[in-house]
Amino acid sequence: MRIKHLLFPLLISGVVLSGCQKDHSNPVEPGHENAALSADSARTEFSKILSKAVYNEPDLRNFIKVKALEQFDNDYDVFYPFVKDEIVSEGQTFRTILEKYCDDPNTLNKIEEELPLLNILLPDLTAFFEFSADKWNSEEKEIAVTALNRNNDPHVIYGNGERMSTLEPNEIPGFPILVVKNSERLKKKNDIKVKGAPEKLDYEFVDNAFDKRLNTKATPATSTDNEGMIVGAWQEFGVDPQYWQRDYIYYGMSHSNPKDGQLNPQIREHIEMIKFEPSILYTISDQTGDPFLKDNHQHKSDDKNPLSYDQISRALWTDGNFEFRIYVSKGKRDGNSAAAQSIVMNVHPTEIFRFRKIKHKIKGGGWFHRDRHTYWIESRDDIESKWYFPYNGAGYPLEKWDVAQEAMNLNFQIFERDDSETIEKSYSYKNTYANSTNFKIDIGLGNIIKQIVKLDLGFGYSSNKSTEKTESTKIVTTKTSDDLGSLTLYFSDPILRTSSGKKKIDNSPWFFSDAYTISNGAVTMQVLPKKL
Q: How do residues 36-67 score in pLDDT, each as one tens digit?
């Protein structure tokens, strides 16, 4: 069988397959202590069955590819409970096809009972090997299957039901492969199991950020329109504490039009750029499943420089992404606190850090062996931060900001999220409110706000310009999440500090090089107002 010959020569050291699979359930769930299969053995058994099915069923291979490309959870996942009863070919469902390759007809029942979050991932290996969901030629039957289990044992590779080889936890497969694992993006709505009817389990996303159906977010107006508006605000008011650039954007106010500005409801602040200082690595790489920097990466090749900078950079990190949560809150003038807006930022370490210098040593392999290349970072001082541009420069949109009814400051609380018990924390912030006499709110029928008018520029001409209140906001996080501190943006803060214009770094989007940023020493952000 050709797959045997594919497996052994193509193994290269790397980081794609991590040996620590995060189970959101115990290996044997409560109420199933006598189950014949543990979670690990169930995943392994499913891998064997799936490997036989995909080897022999071309329609199933194509079905899995199509489902993965849908990216229903914003990744190349095929969530088994959602697709098992879908028709694949000639009246056969995914499940009935798998049943043909089970020695015991009850095996699938046991697997489904033990693994309510059973998932099939098509990994993106294009940094090392030409395989991904869109590059997979599903006409070819040679594709391996492995399971990500909780232990750190080597991953067993199956082809057509046979054990073909193993991969160490930090090795990259150099061949097409499917990975059987638990979904980390979905959870059960409850832990109640309906006996004999696992298909009736209800699921929900761990966070709305994983729900592709919600990706139809409001997008900013054209870059040119927003750029002109932002530059116009700087040209009108410059950096002067008496005048606010946001008055120009939110209320259409200027030196020639200094009174009775009407709130533009289409304006939203956007987190345009964010970066994290390398000093926080010790903090955020502290839990099982967090990416961390490897001691070195080894690669065998007779080429002098076999890997690109990007390939080496990815290989020097263990598998996985950092998941940051940004909670944005603002005080309400009426005292009714609103829930903080939650923004999820899921990034690979190479998206937020770069290496200034990578060491490279070559050890000759002799007559019968290839040379061994070893890459490593000599010091953490060789790591530097890089700007991350959400949505490729479109930015994370924030909720509407109305300083007539809300505080003049936005509060940002930032965490690196780790999986553990959910808890609620209370955070206190000093909120500033502009004098209400500088605003006029017109109420229409049914007490619906008709329009909001700002009477004068800045704080206006009242002697009592603002008041401060210490108010609290509740945030739901997890016990082991790493708190990276808070940031505060004021409505009166400048948007641009100079007119130096836009630039780009390497392949980044164009950005304002001298826009105002907020920082706490660990995290730095650029937040800009844009028209939707």
A: 578 999 999 999 999 999 999 999 999 999 99
pLDDT tens digits, one per residue of 97-156: 999 999 998 999 999 999 999 999 998 887 667 788 989 999 999 999 999 876 667 889
Q: In this predicted structure, what is the pLDDT of residue 299?
A: 86
Measured torsion, CA atoms of residues 233, 239, 240, 243, in degrees rounded to the nearest 10: 20
Q: What is the pLDDT of residues 209-264, one digit of tens each?
A: 778 776 544 455 567 789 999 999 999 999 998 999 999 999 999 999 999 999 99
SS3 113: helix
3-state secondary structure of 268: strand
Helices (H), 121-222: none
Rounded-to-integer distance, Cα 346 and Cα 432, Å: 32
Domain with 171 in it: 2-211
Same domain, 176 and 318: no
| Average pLDDT, integer, range 456-460 | 89
- Residue 360 and residue 296 in contact, taking contact as beta carbons nearer than 8 Å: no
User: Is residue 216, in this structure, part of any structural domain at all?
Assistant: no
Is 164 in the same domain as 310? no
Q: Residues near 317 by Cβ (< 8 Å), separated by ≥ 6?
A: 15, 291, 292, 293, 294, 348, 349, 350
Reported as a single tens digit per residue, the pLDDT across 413-443 is 999 988 777 889 999 999 999 998 888 877 7
Lay out the sheet containing 409-416: strands in order across: 341-347, 322-329, 409-416, 482-490
Sign of CA dihedral 175, 354, 414, 423: positive
**pTM confidence score:** 0.70
**Residue 242 per-residue DSSP state:** T
Residue 367: its pLDDT value, please?
A: 64
Close Cβ partners of 196 (under 8 Å, ≥ 6 residues apart):
none
Residues 6+ apart with CB under 8 A from 237: 243, 244, 245, 247, 248, 255
Nearest Cα neighbor of 349 from 327, 380, 326 is: 380
For residue 217, tell me if it sits in a domain.
Answer: no
Which residues partner with 525 through β-bridges?
274, 518
In which residue are the tokens 């001409």 written?
Answer: 461
- Type of residue numbered 517: T
Are 236 and 205 in a shared domain? no
Taking a C-beta distance cutoff of 8 angstroms, is the pair 43, 121 a contact? Answer: no
278 and 154 part of one domain: no
Query: Beta 297-300 vs 372-376: how paired, if at all?
Result: antiparallel
Q: How many other CB atoms are there within 10 angstroms of residue 373's CB atom?
A: 22
Q: Do residues 40 and 20 both lie within one domain?
A: yes
Q: Is 286 helix (H, G, I), strand (E, B) or coil?
A: coil
Residue 412: C-alpha distances to residues 216, 473, 489 (Å): 24, 11, 8
Tell me, what's the pLDDT at 490? Answer: 98
Q: Which of 371, 353, 355 is nearest to 363 (CA)?
A: 371
Count up the domains in the chain and report the number.
2
